[in-house]
Structures are given as C-alpha cells and as structure tokens.
C-alpha cells in the first residue's frame, strides 16, 4: 500500500556544500530517479522523504536541501540541528568546491550534533574530462577528518546516488 508510511527508523540527512555542485539534483535523483536540467534556486529549506527497506527494516530517510541558502553562506543553525547524517558535496570538475568542503565540515561540527555521520560526495563524475580533483585527494581528506567515506556520484547519470544514501542508512542502522 503506497499510502502506508509507517517505518522502523527515521533518519534526518542534510546536504551541504557550495552552490551549483548538484545538491538539489542529488536529492531529486534519490527521490524520483529523475534528472532535471534546470534546478530551482528557490530560497528556503525543503526536505524530501523516501523509505528504504534494508534487511527487512523500513528506514525513512528525510533528506534536507539548503535550497539556495548556501549561496549567501547564511544557512540557519537549525538546519544542522538534529541531523543524523550529512553529505558534504563538491563538484569533481571544480577544485574550489572541494577546497570549500572543510569549511562546510567545520560549520557542521560547530552547529550539528557531536556524533553526526558525514560522507564526502564528489558529484558530476560524468565530467571526467574536466576533472580537477583526484579521487585519492577525497579519500585522504575523508580519512583525515574521520568521515564515513568518500564517494563519487553523478546525479545526471544516476550513478552511485542511491548507493550513497543506502551506505549512510546502513551505517546509521548499525549505530542506532
Ligand atoms: P546545487 O546548487 O548544489 O543544488 O546544484 P543543482 O542541483 O542546482 O545543480 C547545479 C547545476 O549542475 C545544474 O545545471 C545541474 O543540471 C548540474 N548538475 C547537477 N548534477 C550533475 C551531474 O552529476 N553531472 C553534471 N554534468 N551536471 C550536474
Ligand atoms: Mg540547490
């Protein structure tokens, strides 16, 4: 029954990272499997829910998108609060967006829960020809900073997007 919205676990996941790296596209891809060329730059905060079934458990993922607030670097502190997991996204074809990830991590550490689970997401991996960030740099940073993992995705080609959310859900299940 599609109207049955019962669940065993509910996890709040937030997406952070520079503007234009594909955060909204990642959420859309996770939600519907659709990729839309022009993403909205609506100001505000919005969330999407999808319930995954993992090892017989219904895991409701409530995924929050900054919806444009990140452009002004004025993300409200409440956005970070009560997040179980955070995906820090950058664009593999823009080094500056990777260099920003530490600043986003610090913001998360400042305003988020002490035990928030973090994954480093290198999006736009379909732009291999324009790559400016070697995957090894991401792995190194993730390890140094105690993140769960570094992963590369393509919201456009729907590669590894589902995997990223499932990986996070599995880890959160283990911890809760
Ligand atoms: P946000 O500002 O971080 O939310 O980024 P958006 O989701 O709005 O995406 C910014 C731009 O990047 C849009 O033009 C998207 O179509 C494009 N984009 C998003 N994901 C990908 C991807 O995986 N590959 C490519 N080539 N473009 C993408
Ligand atoms: Mg957006």
Count of DSSP strands = 6
Give the number of helices: 6
| Percent in helix | 25-40%
* Assembly status: single chain
Strand content: 25-35%
The Cα radius of gyration reads: 15 Å
End-to-end gap: 27 Å
Low-pLDDT stretches: none
Largest sheet: 6 strands, mixed
Subcellular location: Cytoplasmic vesicle, Phagosome membrane; Golgi apparatus, trans-Golgi network membrane
Keywords: Cytoplasmic vesicle, Golgi apparatus, GTP-binding, Lipoprotein, Membrane, Methylation, Nucleotide-binding, Phosphoprotein, Prenylation
Membrane topology: Lipid-anchor
Organism: Sinocyclocheilus rhinocerous
Question: Could you provide a short overview of the structure?
Answer:
It is found in: Cytoplasmic vesicle, Phagosome membrane; Golgi apparatus, trans-Golgi network membrane. This protein has 176 residues and is of the alpha/beta class. 31% of the residues lie in helices and 26% in strands.
Task: Give structural notes.
This protein has 176 residues and is of the alpha/beta class. The chain is built from 6 helices and 6 strands; from the N terminus they run βαββαβααβαβα. It has a 6-stranded mixed β-sheet with strand order 2-3-1-4-5-6, sandwiched between helices. The protein is globular. The chain starts with 8 loop residues before the first strand and ends with a helix. Magnesium ion binds at residues 23-24, 39, 65, 67-68.
């Amino acid at each position: 029954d599609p109207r049955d919205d019962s669940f065993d676990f509910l996890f709040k996941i937030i997406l952070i990272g520079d503007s234009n790296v594909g955060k909204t596209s990642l959420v859309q891809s996770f939600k519907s499997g659709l990729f839309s060329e022009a993403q909205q730059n609506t100001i505000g905060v919005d969330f999407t829910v999808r319930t995954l079934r993992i090892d017989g458990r219904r895991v409701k993922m409530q995924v929050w998108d900054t919806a444009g607030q990140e452009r002004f670097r004025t993300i409200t502190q409440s956005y970070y609060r009560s997040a179980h997991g955070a995906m820090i996204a950058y664009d593999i074809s823009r080094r500056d967006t990777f260099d920003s990830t530490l600043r986003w991590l610090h913001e998360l550490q400042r305003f988020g829960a002490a035990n928030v689970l973090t994954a480093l997401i290198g999006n736009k991996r379909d732009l291999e020809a324009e790559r400016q960030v070697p995957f090894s740099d991401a792995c190194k940073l993730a390890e140094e900073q105690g993140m769960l993992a570094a992963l590369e995705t393509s919201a456009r080609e729907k590669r590894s997007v589902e995997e990223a959310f499932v990986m996070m859900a599995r880890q959160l299940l283990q911890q809760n």
